[in-house]
Design goal:
Keywords: Cytoplasm, Nucleus, tRNA processing. Helix 10 runs parallel beside helix 11. The chain is globular, with a radius of gyration of 22 Å. The C terminus is likely disordered. It has one domain: P-loop containing nucleotide triphosphate hydrolases (Rossmann fold). With 401 residues, the chain is α/β, with parallel strands linked by helices. It has a 9-stranded mixed beta sheet, with helices on both faces. A 3-stranded antiparallel beta sheet has the order 1-2-3, with no helix packed on it. The longest helix has 16 residues.
Amino acid sequence: MSSFKRRTPSAQTALPSTRISAHNSTVLTSTGVPSVDELLGGGLPLHTSLLIHEDRFTGYAKLLLSYYLAQGIASSNAVCLATAEEEPEAVVRSLMGVVEGKVPSEMKEEEDEDISTSAVGGGIGGRRMGAVREEEDRMRIAWRYQGLPKFNTAFGGGRRDANSQQPFCNLFDLTKRMAPAMLNAAGPRMALLDVSVWAAEAEEQGGKNVYERLLEHIEGLVDEGGFRIRPNAPPPPTVLRIAIHSISSPIWGRSSTADLARFLHSLRAILRTSYATAVLTLPQTSSPQTSTLLAHLSDAVLRLDSFAGSSTPVHPAYESQYHGFLDVIKVPRVGCLGGRKGEVGMLGFKVRRKRFLVERCSLPPEGEGVGRGDEEETRRKAPVNKGGCGSGGGGSSVLDF
């Protein structure tokens, strides 16, 4: 009798609310927004970080960070929140509620009106937009534009994987708040850090700056929670989500760019050797040098350009449909030489009554207010999905560095 045994690949232990990328076999986690997950290649890969440039005068970046936190709590992940702008407990209490038993198509049917200032709050600078019906759009837009590929805004939302009892990306309702029972159950898995207290202590007593203390807390969470990758050791029962709001803002105290760079470099090393992801927001007060440095030290970078804080006039055709533009500066490239091929085109984001959406911007038919010159100018400023080599992404060609 032959002793030959067929060699089969070992089954990979599935972490809750994660899935394997079909592109490069990396483990993906959800940001809480299906359309943002699709922009990142299906989700935020494990061991990586996402940097979000905050928009001016509004708080849409904080809204995306809230989605990331809410998804972590709904997925029973460990969560670490560091902020100096407000109390971390208040941020957690204001998280959006989870929608049970619905699919994205049902959510869309319930959204007959756009978001107003009172629906989400003045904190994110929401403005009332004219309700644009889908049937009216089909009547106004020329037939040749209707054949263009549409951006999938419900990619994976609310769907469960075959090997998991939890959905990869939950559905959330901005008009509701997360249930207290869910927050209480997630309490032992949450670490809420008030950076403003550290900044005041460093100002009065000296010693370690806020970045050094934050790095020590993150390392302690990784080691004590068993999130560190070790040889021949089973993976932890869940993953760690690190959320840092408005890093390097004036409330974080006095520090140099070298301290910030050292922190980001160390955080990146921790992520590479642990079952964790991180999402950071960068305020508009940061200098261009700081923004470039942080983009280089981050795995993915998104920029929100709100119409409310735009220094240039916005055409009414876009202002009536979106709250601003979203620029994909950098996408994660883990386990591969290049990023996703092709351009994503010009993207617009809007906050509906119950959810945050990212869509491809569509121009109205020629002759309705947008001329050739405006169209060319808009396309020249359109954000593209950089897929070049190295850590940065500054050119328009895939060969530019």
